Amino acid sequence: MIDVVVVGGYLGAGKTTLVNHLLREGTGRRTLVLVNDFGKVAVADELVAARDGETITLTNGCVCCSLASPLVDALVELRGRADPPELLVIEASGVADPEPLSHHAMIPGFRLSGVVVVADAETVRARSAHELVGRTVLRQLRAAGLVVLNKTDLVDAATLTRLHAWLAEAAPTAVVLDAVQGAVPVSIVVGPVGAAEHHDHEPLANPHLSATWEPAGPVDRSALLAVLTDPSTGIVRAKGVVRFGDRPDRPEMVQVTGRRVECSPVDDELQAAAIVLIGLPPEFDGGALLTQLDATVS
Amino acid sequence: MSTTIFRARHIVTMHRSNPTATAVAVRDGRVLAVGTYEECAQWGEHVVDDTFADRVLVPGFVEAHGHSMDALVVQYPYVGYHDYPLPDGTVAKGATTYAGVIDRLRQADAALPPDATLIANSFDPIYFPDEPRLTREHLDRVSTTRPIFVRHASGHLATVNTALLQKEGITRECTTPGVARDGNGEPNGELQEPPAMSLAAEAHRTFMRGFVDPSVVGVHAQLCRNAGVTTSTELSGAMLLSASLEQAWRAATDQPTTPVRMVIYNLPSAPGTSAAYDEVAEAALELARRDTPKFRNRGAKLVLDGSIQGWTAMLQWPGYITGTDHGQLLTAPEEMVDAVRAFHRRRLNVHAHCNGNATAGAFIDAVEQVLAEDAWLDHRHVVQHSQTTLPAQYRRMGRLGLCANIFTNHIWYWGDQHASLTLGPDRARGMWACRTALDEGVPLSIHTDSGVTPIGSLMPMWCAVNRVSTSGQVLGEHERITPYEALHAATLGAAFQVHMDHEIGSIEPGKWADFAVLDESPLDVDPMAIRDIAVWGTVVGGDVFEAPRG
């Protein structure tokens, strides 16, 4: 199973900057970045180990390539490879609607980890009212689980506050993270390395709060999803495996980004149940959250 | 240096100084002289060819917006609503009822080896408003054992039968969006959009491979010959995306037996994505250096929005009458400027798919900005399809040197649907505004978008002249043009838009000897009979290609 993170956002918002940030920091997983812009792979030079046509291999082993074929065909080719990546980051084009794009991550062999939309703090509101592209910008925000509000150094505090209030409406399923130069914690963008995944890599240092929950048994689906998407918990990102009471025979991978949850069946029936949670202060309280989560065990 | 004089009953040249003739002399593939036989004979030793003594020659039709993937329409069993001509000169009859669709599929099923998947193409649900959606239950009546994949004309959907669902493991457990369900939550056979369509893995793969198979050139060329088309513009060339394609397509086109010239406008990137436009335009220049007389690389095609009948073309207020949305741009306005600039600077012209008038407006803005920076006045950039372009936009286009290539076939194929479902009757009458374009000084061509409708210029001419829909209503009589203007749009007008009007588009000394051989002149028949004129075949570079009789 290849985890997919879709990075969307209007032209110039800072998608490539964010992707470069992820590559520089490292994701802790074998990563491939697909750029939905032909010939436009823009990776900071110091990260590049080799270039071969539309493919760039980075010094940390990550690979970037731009699309020459319809996305679905590129994904079908990818899942057939002998050494498929563990994480696929799709950098969407500036006018792409991340919602239908994310459906590509729900074909066999892939699972959607999250939709991240980069917004330019200086221009996003004006763009959202633009005659030709306003609807596109609003569609992008509506699809987001995480909004990286970029270039916040270019607006004053009052504007920023108003922006957050506006985004609460425009991006109702998103958590909003302020950023300069796309610098946000990598694990929030690409999801934590799940507790059930076994790796040689060291887990990444995480400046945000985190907790690991190991449910004692099958959980109630709607109760769990309600907790995981409750804004008052401060959860930004979560990933892990659980068994639901309605399908106890088949564990499911649960990935949370903001107020969005993606569940997908896991092939390994013996996989232990555990969810890694990442949250933002001040709302995030690991202890209280674990108690809340325990109450969802059916 | 042999000379052949073709004598004909009548020749329409589209060349002002010798508008009609009865003989044309050809040497080295080019027109040597046009006039009477005696006038042509002054060039000396020659052979007389009277094959066309009883026929009419007009300049070979130039399709300035086609797709050689129309080969994929005719290579698979056809379940479209309207008749579609086949390479052997016969016609695939349209299937106008579900029973007809099922019947067609049963015939195809009977003709296939036992293990093969049945793939059919061009089904269009918009023509069946009173029927429920096509589902697996309909297709199960064809076969319960053979997998069946029916691709819709839009390319956005497919309907499959139960055997295919089972073979590919598409069950109620499937979590891919776009797998339509019945009341019990079981997949009903409709797969919506590429992610779901890709679940029908084998059929999807088989079909997609066809898009890049150079054998389509040969099939497309036969369809062109049968319709009098001597130059066809492939308006979604993929040679920038995959350079190896260029060699294969050029080799296929350059074969002496291939009866058509191909003009390729390459996509700088897949529609909806963007590109490093300067690099891509540089690569396009490089491709153009390898041009041959029959194979040309010209500029770029930009796909800037979707379709009207798919409700995805971007419209200005008040948008679609049946939808709440107005469609959307596939390229941001800022990026249109970058794209146009990269090609314009290199003197490569840009053909931009603009079905919606909001999109056309954004493209006109981009061209205006680039022109202000760089005064290549003879750019001939083209608003393609131009289905809903408004009078004020045509006025701007006329002043900016922009051309319009209008998809007039829509009048007959979808005119009724546009009047009832998309724009409403008032605005539908103003669609495909050929009269306005010409009156505002906009160089005009008309096209088939071959693959979407059959290639051949008589039909778009008939539509532009008569403006009659399938139901027989006249849609926009004030936007009609004359048969002469329509023939000009389909020959010299189209050649102009691909910067080849000095080589093709009229029967004129020095130009390629490219003719459409017809039974009657479209300028002399009852305008309502233009589309029924029989095409004998073509002459391409002096070589005679007879179309098979169906």
By helix and strand content of chain A, what is the structural category?
Answer: alpha/beta
Beta strand % of chain A: 25-35%
Q: Which pair has the most extensive contact?
A: A-B, 36 and 40 residues
- Global geometry of chain B: globular
The average pLDDT score of chain B comes to: 95
Which runs of chain B of at least 5 residues are low in confidence (pLDDT < 50)? none
Mean pLDDT of chain A, to the nearest integer, reads 89
Percent helix of chain A? 25-40%
Placed side by side, the strands forming the largest sheet of chain A appear as 4-5-6-2-7-1-8-9-10
The number of helices of chain A is 9
- Work out the helicity level of chain B: 25-40%
Count of DSSP E strands of chain B?
Answer: 24
Output the keywords.
heterodimer; A: 298 residues; alpha/beta; five-stranded antiparallel beta sheet; 9 helices; 15 strands; 26% helix; B: 550 residues; eight-stranded mixed beta sheet; eight-stranded parallel beta sheet; 32% helix; globular
